[in-house]
Specification:
Pdz3 Domain; Thrombin, subunit H; alpha+beta; 471 residues; globular; seven-stranded antiparallel β-sheet; six-stranded antiparallel barrel; 27 strands
Length: 471
């Protein structure tokens, strides 16, 4: 029989416990590693990839207000007792995205419009002055440039918005409510692509119209405008632009401009210093049910062609007046407003495939390549501080002008007299003081006879308004 030496048992037990205790930290580390890997999802990786490229944009504007005492009636009684005009500086905030190491940044036009000074804050808190390289209000895009960029900027990777799938993950980054935050690091919200190719007209009339935008339920809040919408690969697929909301916050209806449209905008600025106006060269109006019955195509909805301008894509393709356009690139159109939105979003060289019915009741299909619209030469009127031009049929259609006469305002000098009168680019001057304005010659005569009018009559966004000087 073997004898057991009980003297060594305590030693063996201690050795066994030591081995167990040594193994426990290793197992704990292994579990921690597994959990850590599980936490590092694709969303985390994509967010970390793009965060250094997101900037906060602070816009400084000086707003000038005219007091009632600037009116000649009050001036006669009070003289210089009260100021005629007063001004104050206001700040607003948005987001932007670094595109290149030399300091190019993309954001929305509505973020930086009418800015006197713009500053950007990088994700690490550094601040820089920027200037506007190009702006397009129709697209709601603006390209900025850091005046003295650092050498360690981190450009974002741009994806392909034509390759978006409905239902795929989206990540929205930006600086919402930036004035309330203590740092400049961007916030992250997550959702999915809810829809693509949306057409939206903003509540600001025709100032900002959106066509072909991406819809997402990722939360987009005030201050997010101009920030990136990213896919799970960390590629930018859109620029966050606006939301539908009744509360003022995100309600799951956010919209972003596709990044491929942004790429075209940047190319236009780099190649031509501005985005060239593109058009198809034909005028349209809504096909009413009465028109459809008269043409023998009852029940058809679409647009009837009212004008085909010479030497344009429509004329080259053999399009004729009285034909009915039912769809363009597979999307059905039944209102002039929708068509205008589509055409305002075109770039020179874009192709548009039209389908419809001829005036003989036959089906037609034509492919048009958008060309550059070259408006009449604008004339600068120094006393007014604005560039203006005559209105011809092509200009009337291209800018959706309802009036048959008037003068189109193509540019307003900042701080100039036209600006003080309340005029904006895109307005049509119909009356200046007591003088009717039918052309540029009339406007010059009115300026000479009545330089400081009490009121003006204009067309703006399809509506007719009277602007009162001093109120």
């Amino acid at each position: 029989m073997t004898k057991i030496n009980f003297n060594i048992l305590p030693i063996l037990v201690l050795l066994g416990l030591s081995s167990i205790l040594k193994a426990q930290p290793t197992e704990r580390d292994s579990v921690n590693a597994i959990v850590s890997d599980a936490r590092r999802t694709g969303i985390v990786v994509a967010s970390q990839k793009v965060m250094p490229s997101v900037v906060s944009i602070t816009v400084f504007q000086t707003q000038t207000y005219s007091s009632p005492f600037s009116d000649p009636f009050f001036r006669e009684f009070f003289g210089q007792m009260f100021p005629y005009d007063y001004s104050r500086e206001i700040q607003s905030l948005g987001s932007g995205l670094i595109l290149s190491k030399d300091g190019n940044i993309i954001t929305n036009a509505h973020v930086v419009k009418n800015a006197d000074k713009i500053k950007v804050t990088l994700a690490d808190g550094r601040n820089y002055d920027v200037k506007v390289k190009g702006i397009d209000e129709a697209l709601d895009l603006a390209l900025l440039e850091i005046t003295n960029p650092p050498n360690d900027l981190y450009p974002a990777a741009l994806g392909n918005s034509d390759d978006i799938m409905i239902g795929e993950w989206t990540i929205a980054l930006g600086n919402p409510f930036g004035f309330l935050m203590a740092d400049a690091r961007p916030s992250v919200t997550v959702g999915v692509v809810s829809a693509v190719d949306r057409r939206v007209q903003s509540q600001q009339g025709k100032q900002f119209n959106y066509t072909g935008v991406i819809q997402t339920d990722a939360a987009i809040n005030p201050g997010n405008s101009g920030g990136p919408l990213v896919n799970i690969l960390g590629e930018v697929i859109g620029i966050n632009t606006f939301i539908f909301t009744q509360s003022g916050g995100s309600e799951g209806l956010g919209f972003a401009i596709p990044i491929n449209q942004v790429k075209k905008f940047i190319y236009e600025l780099q190649s031509h210093a501005t985005r060239r106006n593109a058009w198809l060269g034909m005028g349209v109006q809504t096909l009413t049910s009465e028109m459809a019955r008269a043409m023998g195509i009852s029940g058809t909805t679409g647009l009837i062609i009212t004008n085909v301008f010479p030497n344009t894509p429509a004329a080259t393709a053999g399009i004729s007046e009285a034909w009915v356009v039912i769809s363009a690139n597979g999307i059905k159109y039944s209102s002039e407003a929708d068509w205008q939105m589509m055409e305002m979003g075109l770039f020179v060289g874009d192709t548009v495939r039209l389908s419809g019915i001829t005036d003989e009741g036959k089906s037609f299909t034509r492919t048009l390549k958008a060309s550059e619209y070259e408006p009449q030469k604008a004339e600068m009127i120094a006393d007014l501080g604005a560039e203006v031009m005559e209105i011809d049929p092509a200009t009337r259609y291209r800018f959706n002008i309802q009036s048959q006469e008037g003068v189109y305002v193509s540019k307003v000098e900042k701080g100039g007299f036209a600006s003080k009168l309340g005029l904006s680019e895109g307005d049509v001057i119909l009356a200046y003081g007591s003088y009717k304005v039918s052309n540029v010659k009339n406007l010059k005569q009115a300026l000479k006879a009545e330089h400081d009018p009490k009121s003006l009559v204009i067309e703006r966004g399809g509506g007719r308004y009277r602007l009162y000087r001093g109120f």
